Amino acid sequence: MFAHGFGCDQNMWRFVSPAFEDEFRTVLFDHVGAGGSDLAAYDTTKYSTLAGYADDLAEIGIELGLKDAVFVGHSVSSMIGVMASIKVPEMFESLVLVGPSARYLDEGEYIGGFSHAQIEELLESLADNHLGWSAAMAPAIMGNPDRPELGEELTNSFCRTDPDIAKAFARVTFMSDNRDDLSKVTARTLILQCREDIIASEQVGAYVQQHIPKSEMVILDATGHCPNLSAPNEVVAAIKAFV
Amino acid sequence: MPGDPHGTPTEDFEDLYENAPCGYLSLRPDGRIFKSNATLSGWIGFSQAELLGKKLHELLTIAGRVFYETHFSPLLRMQGFFNEVALDLVTKDGKKLPVLANAMERRDDAGNLLFTRVTIFQAAQRRRYERNLVDLRTAAEAAKGEAIAAKVLAEAGLTEEQAVAELREQFIAVLGHDLRNPLASINAGTRMLLQEELSDRAQKIVALMQGSVSRMSDLIDNVLDFAQGRLGGGITVALDAREPLEPVLQQVVDELRVGSPSRLIETHFKITHKVYCDRGRIGQLASNLLGNALTHGAADTPIQFLASTTGEKLEISVVNGGDPIPPEAMNRLFHPFFRGDGRDSPQGLGLGLHIASEIAKAHDGTLVVASSPVETRFTFQMPLEPDGEG
């Protein structure tokens, strides 16, 4: 099962998941608010913590009867997968966490990489963003329900996210703290870490690796936060070696 | 072409690159800058030599970096380009420079990334307008919330004692007045925006906003009329025949067409006599009837809007297709807060038909409805010269 992170949708896996289709049954989905998801299903209370997203993931797994499956999560979905695997331990035999961070905010001796002020600035800048902005304005202003095509033509075909939900998701993501969950993970875990990742640094990845009992870390020869796009072959090779 | 008799100047491509009216950046596959132009350096204060080897996200705010990494970079990789991305560049002296960026990847025949070109435009003004639009939308939503609150209050008020009635009326009158001011600002704002150079879709958006403004304005008028407590004794009208009525009706139709561009409203006007009426009120009546037809009529059948005079009377009819009005609803149709479908219609508070019938009474006229599976027809009739002044 492949779970995308903040900012995009299941298209994130387009260069990775096909490599597993021969040997595995692959499951891809969009979190509520992203891609082709039903925006009406968004519930402010449920999704005010990552647990709401983890419940969805568990629900999908139960619906599909997943047992001893492999979970591959990117960015914030790493922790969503961690939470789901604690909730339903038999669902995932192993976890692959791409660019995970158990906490983005600095706190005491813990270095997450971001200060409160920086996160606030990020949330602000979401409002100015065009790609998302059009999607927000489209249904609200153009959005006579009898003319859906007006909204459609304004939005991107890839990585569509509803900006209001994206903003809430960003807040939930960057305020989350899953450090206490790590030790409860029983599944085998692989951490894929890039160099020069400004969102989840090597230090942050190492923290996750040190606290998940049965885990190992592979440093990819790729930079940035999205190796599933920038170095898909390496990601595929590392996952294949692990599973 | 130095010898050109018309004096056409020569274009120097090196100079065009360096001093183009936009910034240029070229990125290596690892994202590092290997070429940039003088225009960009002029804007952000970093020399071309200083930019060499930097990553684009080093020129962004922290928030911008996260955004770039999670949104734009994936988009670029997936579709090979991105357009009109809003970014804030950080200049050498720490100031923010709002820009729009387009980017395009160049790949070889085997699909390997060779480099990425980025074009950068300054966008301070545009960003301000967009901010305004977002603010207007927020204001409109807040105003809508207040209107709903007014409705709840008004509905609750109906069952309360007389003592509360006065307070309620005052509250709604003040609220209605207060709603008008921000609405007028929104209206003025949209008109100002239309004078700017806008993209086609921005023009569409602004036109639709204008439609919503006019709908909301009608809504406020209805609420105020109701709240001001004049309905028991009939609505106040000022009758005269100094101006023609037809342009008023035409404007009502035009406004509604803007708000519901997908709906067909056919007009047949034949007003050949002078009509002593309150044109604003007749316009309000027509607007309420048409609004009702837009809400409840079948979307695929044109709405007929007829207005004609004979030697004795003015007749205005609004005809729509769709399901007939159920018999049990007929006698309550003109009651305040009556809403036929029982759903929370975003179109109104259920005051439109009530106000329309009150306007008809104030003109010594009648408003009747006939509904069958073929059509639903509201007909307003009034004498050309009513008695008294309402």
Summed up:
The complex is a heterodimer of chains A (243) and B (390). By secondary structure, chain A is of the alpha/beta class.
Write the layout of secondary structure elements.
The complex is a heterodimer of chains A (243) and B (390).
Chain A (H helix, E strand, L loop, with lengths): L1 E2 L24 E2 L20 H14 L5 E6 L1 H12 L4 E7 L17 H13 L1 H13 L5 H5 L10 H13 L12 E8 L6 H10 L3 E9 L3 H4 L1 H11 L1
Parallel strand pairs in A: 1-2, 1-3, 3-4, 4-5, 5-6
Chain B lengths: L12 H6 L4 E5 L5 E4 L1 H7 L3 H4 L10 H18 L1 E10 L5 E12 L5 E10 L1 H35 L3 H34 L4 H28 L18 H14 L5 E6 L8 H18 L6 E7 L3 E8 L6 H4 L21 H11 L3 E6 L4 E8 L7
Parallel strand pairs in B: 6-7
Antiparallel strand pairs in B: 1-2, 1-5, 3-4, 4-5, 7-8, 8-10, 9-10
Helix pairs in contact in B: 5-6, 5-7, 6-7, 7-8, 8-9, 9-11
Assembly classification: heterodimer
Total of domains of chain A: 1
Topology, number of strands of chain A = 6
The appropriate CATH architecture of the largest domain in chain B is 2-Layer Sandwich
Q: CATH top level of the largest domain in chain B?
A: Alpha Beta
Would you give an account of this structure?
The complex is a heterodimer of chains A (about 240) and B (about 400). In chain A, helix 1 crosses helix 2 (about 75-85) and helix 3 runs antiparallel to helix 6 (about 165-175). Chain A is globular, with a radius of gyration of 18 Å. Chain A has nine helices and six strands; from the N terminus they run E-E-H-E-H-E-H-H-H-H-E-H-E-H-H. In chain A, strand 3, helix 2 and strand 4 form a beta-alpha-beta unit. Chain A is an alpha/beta fold and about 240 residues long. Chain B has about 400 residues and is an alpha+beta fold. Chain B contains eleven helices and ten strands. In chain B, the strands form two sheets. A five-stranded antiparallel beta sheet of chain B has the order 2-1-5-4-3, with helices on both faces. In chain B, a hairpin with a 3-residue loop joins strand 7 and strand 8. In chain B, helix 5 (about 125-160) runs parallel beside helix 7 (about 200-225) and helix 9 (about 280-295) packs antiparallel against helix 11. The longest helix of chain B is centred in the middle third of the chain and has 35 residues, at about 125-160. Chain B is elongated, with a radius of gyration of 30 Å. The N and C termini of chain B lie far apart (about 80 Å). Mean pLDDT of chain B is about 80; it is low at about 340-345. The interface between A and B is large, with 46 and 43 residues.
